[in-house]
Amino acid sequence: MLCPMMRFLDQNLCLFWAILGGDFQIEHIDKVSKKLYEKYGKIVKMQGLLGRPDMLFLFDPDEIEKVFRQEDTLPFRPSMPSLDYYKHVYRKEFFGDNCGIIAVHGDKWQNFRSKVNQIMLQPRVTRMYVKSIETTSQELVDRIEVIKNEKNQVPDDFLNEIHKWSLESIAKIALDVRLGCLDSDAHPDTQKLINAINTFFMNVPVLELKIPFWKIWNTPTFKEYLNALDTIREITLKHVDIALHNLSQDYSDELSVLQRVLKMENDAKTASNLALDMFLVGIDTTSNAVASMLYQLSLHQEKQAKLYEEIKNLLPYKSTQISHEKLDQMDYLKACVKETMRMYPVVIGNGRCTTRDRVIGGYQIPKGVQVIFQHCVISNLEEYFPRSGEFLPERWLKNSELFRNHHPFASLPFGFGKRMCLGRRFADLEIQTVIAKIVRNFKIEYHHGKLDYHIHPMYTPNGPLRLTFIRRQ
Ligand code: HEM
Q1: From the CA of 1, how far away is ligand 1's center (Å)?
Q2: Would the CB of 277 count as within 6 Å of ligand 1?
Q3: In three state form, how does the secondary structure of the chain look?
Q4: What spacing in Å lies between the alpha carbon of 236 and ligand 1's midpoint?
Q5: Which residue's alpha carbon is at the smallest distance from atom 34 of ligand 1?
Q6: Which of 69, 231, 233, 437 is 20 to 30 A from residue 189's alpha carbon, by CA?
Q7: What average pLDDT score do residues 291-296 get?
Q8: What is the per-residue pLDDT across 131-163, written as a single tens digit (0 to 9) for each?
Q9: Domain locations in the chain?
Q10: Ligand 1, atom 27: nearest CA belongs to which residue?
Q11: With a 6 A CB cut-off, is 289 part of the ligand 1 pocket?
């Protein structure tokens, strides 16, 4: 006979299998979530699924708003116990009490975050990096020229080129180093780092959404995951050391994040652990958002033409420099970014672990439950975004008849509250700059079968991005 706990597990597995038609694949979690919503409504409880704590799926922006507004002083995002293990057990001696932000909670998290918030989130600071990001974006434009074929189409691994741009941009922001990722003779560390980050992200959902055997023995996936983290840590540290060695004492405006932390804290450990976290979560997120946006623009030529008009007005020559004042005026560009992130948020969901008993959606929810905000499903519902299946950047523009005051919690690509994305200002700057540069230089087309989206490990077009880049005058 099954013990009561096993029965729950069993029932839930059956439920999952039933919903999935017997095909549980992590890359289709977006579809599973949608099916759960359609079958059970706006609030769904999963009891102790696959050895995890109870989970509560929320498909209701009103309830999500309440959870966020009543957030604790030390919010707990239920993510990455495997990274928690890496930082607090496996490499405890290296991290000590100063483990950074990702997979860190409580006082340690608050201590670290309060030190770096000001540096990472002040628009005044972000603006100082426009020139650096423009330079890395120009390198991607030049690289597209080199790699496209006689039909102007880029190779199947184009996403990897965008990863390189993203890595180069973060290295500039975090450490003020030029890695040369997009050079034809790039250092082998570049690809090693990109691969390691990809392995890390690919293995996170396997370790955390399937039965956590890794907690009992060293599974091959877990070994691969730990090796990838070691690679990321070692390569990042190599560059931190170089950056520390080259630090100039005459602090000017264009300081790297590393220099800013050192100036404020005089603490190399805080600076290098922040850089490590930025490398860990700041590369694939941004590059997949850019890939998704290029794909959407290629599918919606009339929107791309409108965007080009806006960009050309502000950048009359390809050589016209981008400034933060010019970016501020690119309203349609920002609307295109918002619309892409609404329909295809690279991070499809977010969550908080309840740190005390509370009422959610009229139900008594005990402490320790993982509340998962199903953003991707919500931001694609007609109820919150009329004509939700259409790519309509105009819905975000106040002077458009399509504009509506959307529910502020119905599309939250960067999360909300005290644990909101620390890199969102840099991510916005990077995405806006590179798209402005590419659209100013090329007309983007796509001449192949339509791509579905999947979790890989970000929410991204499923298939080679065989885009065509036609040079503009
Ligand atoms: C399109 C790009 C990006 C997206 C969509 C994104 C999304 C997110 C989301 C949804 C969260 C969770 C927020 C919450 O719990 O409320 C998060 C956290 C975080 N992000 Fe991003 N992110 C992006 C880029 C970046 C970049 C470029 C960096 C670093 C430079 C970064 C650093 C972080 C950090 C450190 C956290 C953890 C914050 C904490 O727990 O206190 N992200 N991001």
Answers
A1: 45
A2: yes
A3: CCCHHHHHHHHHHHHHHHHHCCCCCHHHHHHHHHHHHHHHCCEEEECCHHHCCCEEEECCHHHHHHHHHCCCCCCCCCCCHHHHHHHHHHCHHHHCCCCCCCCCCHHHHHHHHHHHHHHHHCHHHHHCCHHHHHHHHHHHHHHHHHHCCCCCECCCCHHHHHHHHHHHHHHHHHHCCCCCCCCCCCCHHHHHHHHHHHHHHHHHHHHHHCCCHHHCCCCHHHHHHHHHHHHHHHHHHHHHHHHHHHCCCCCCCCCCHHHHHHHHHCCHHHHHHHHHHHHHHCCHHHHHHHHHHHHHHHHCHHHHHHHHHHHHHHCCCCCCCCCHHHHHHCHHHHHHHHHHHHHCCCCCCEEEECCCCEEECCEEECCCCEEEECHHHHCCCCCCCCCCCCCCHHHHCCCCCCCCCCCCCCCCCCCCHHHCCCCHHHHHHHHHHHHHHHHHHEEEEECCCCCCEEECCCEEECCCCCEEEEECC
A4: 19
A5: 422
A6: 437
A7: 98
A8: 999 999 999 999 999 999 999 999 999 999 999
A9: 1-70+348-412, 71-347+413-471
A10: 282
A11: yes
In this structure, CATH architecture of domain 71-347+413-471: Orthogonal Bundle (1.10)
C-alpha of residue 277 to centroid of ligand 1, in Å: 10
- Position in ligand 1 atom list of the atom nearest CA 277: 35
pLDDT band at residue 271 under the 50/70/90 scheme: confident
The residue among 324 and 28 whose pLDDT is bigger is 324
Q: Best of 414, 428, 433 to mutate for ligand 1, by most ligand atoms within 8 A of CB? A: 414
59 lines ligand 1 (CB under 6 A): no
Which of 67, 281, 344, 435 gets mutated to test ligand 1 (max ligand atoms within 8 A of its CB)? 281
Question: Under CATH, to which class is 1-70+348-412 assigned?
Answer: alpha beta
User: 81 or 13: whose pLDDT is higher?
Assistant: 81
CATH topology match: 1-70+348-412 vs 71-347+413-471 = no
**Å from CA of 422 to ligand 1 middle:** 5
Query: Atom 1 (ligand 1): residue with closest C-alpha?
Result: 286
